């Protein structure tokens, strides 16, 4: 059921790779709720072509942008404002990639050039998106900017490797830029810390199936699905959350507040 929560709002959605992507689900929901938006991803990801199906069903245009390139981001905001006919109300940063994780490098044997790439793609790009938006005065008053994070920013999950540092940077940027954007434009900036989710980025982390099941048993409500995540994100883009800013919001079925659960005890006793 749709509630027209985003009627009249204009946005930019980063990171829809295929139909499993969290950003893909957000795009479908945002459309359902009355938003107009552009879709963007790294040129290399667009070559797969799957995103065209999403663009068609949402009536959205695709603008290629490597989120680490200021030039690409400037072009993205310029074109988005042209296409949508005005400034932007919401931005979703749904981007993550670590060459060290992808190539199975042990945490004690990281390639530092790749580490810097991880930080740039998965952390700094969030700052770049906001700096470009601010310099171009591309955001509307009371806009909402969101990025997706993971609890490995606060607690150690060995296979998450250097992505843990990238998420810590991401969450810190949300606080620092959230302060700045609140003062200048009443724009709110938050991160949502999502349960493990079966997507390309998620399943690329070693031991994913085991920690997916562990998290499911450790969460009184179970793992939050990507559909649930999309619903939460829509509320964060709506006018019902205008005073929420500079937060890392846990969307994890209760995982982060649980010490142990009966489900897990039962599993361990087996
Ligand atoms: N899947 C999980 O378990 C999980 C849990 C918590 C948080 N997250 C976060 O959710 C976000 C979305 O990931 P997902 O799970 O939907 O996986 P996904 O693989 O579908 O999405 C990741 C996206 O990042 C894009 N990307 C990579 N490098 C880029 C670049 N240089 N410029 C622009 N885009 C680039 C990819 O093309 C892809 O579309 C990520 O930030 C991820 O860390 C995922």
Automatic annotation (TrEMBL):
Signal peptide: none annotated. Pfam families: adh_short_C2 (PF13561). It catalyses: a 2,3-saturated acyl-[ACP] + NAD(+) = a (2E)-enoyl-[ACP] + NADH + H(+). Its EC number is 1.3.1.9. InterPro entries: Enoyl-ACP_Rdtase_NADH, NAD(P)-bd_dom_sf, SDR_fam. Keywords: Fatty acid biosynthesis, Fatty acid metabolism, Lipid biosynthesis, Lipid metabolism, NAD, Oxidoreductase. It is an enzyme of class 1 (oxidoreductase). Pathway: Lipid metabolism; fatty acid biosynthesis. The keyword Oxidoreductase applies. Belongs to the short-chain dehydrogenases/reductases (SDR) family. FabI subfamily. This is Enoyl-[acyl-carrier-protein] reductase [NADH].
